[in-house]
Specification:
Blueprint: E1 7-12, E2 17-24, E3 28-35, H1 43-53, E4 63-67, H2 73-90, E5 93-97, H3 99-108, H4 111-119, E6 124-132, E7 135-144, E8 147-149
Parallel strand pairs: 1-4, 4-5
Antiparallel strand pairs: 1-2, 2-3, 6-7, 7-8
Amino acid sequence: MAKNKKIIIGLSTAGSRIKVALKHGADKFKAKSIKEPNQEKVFLKIIEKFLSFEKAEFKDLDSLCIVKGPGRFTGIRISLTFAAMLKVLVGLKVFTITGFEILAFQASVNLRFKKWLVTAKNPKIAVIIHAFKKEYFLQVFKAMPGVVSMSYAHQATKAMPGVVSMSYAHQATK
C-alpha cells in the first residue's frame, strides 16, 4: 500500500516507443522509454514494476495521463482502453493530452522563448512531429506571455508536402 501520496502514471503508446512515467508525491519520479512493436505486451508489465517499487497497486493510483496523439491509431487505442478500464474499476482520474500540447508547453517555459516572446508580433509556436518515413504531423499555437493558446491550429497538408494530418486543437490553458 502506498503511503497516502499521490501516484500519477503517464503513458504514451502513440509512437514506436512506449513511454511510461510514474510520479509519487513530490520527490519520486521514474520513467522508461523502449522501442517495442508489441506495446500491448509490455506496457502493463512496466507499470506493475513501477508500482511494485513504490509498494503500491493499481487501486492506489490517483490519476493517469494518456497521450492521445498524434500517432498510431492502434497504439493510442491501447492506452485509451487501458485508461477507461482503470477509471471504471478503481475510480481513477484520467487526463489526456496531445504530443503537440506537451511540446508547445515545453517551448513556452524555455527562457530564450520567453525573451523572444516579449518582442514578437503575433507570435506562434509550430510543433512538428515526425510521423513515419518522410511525413510529419503539424500544429500551430498562438503564443502570449505566460500562456500558450491551444485554440489556433490550421491544416497544413496542402501547404507543406509530407505533412500527414492535423489533430484538432482545443483550449487547454485553463
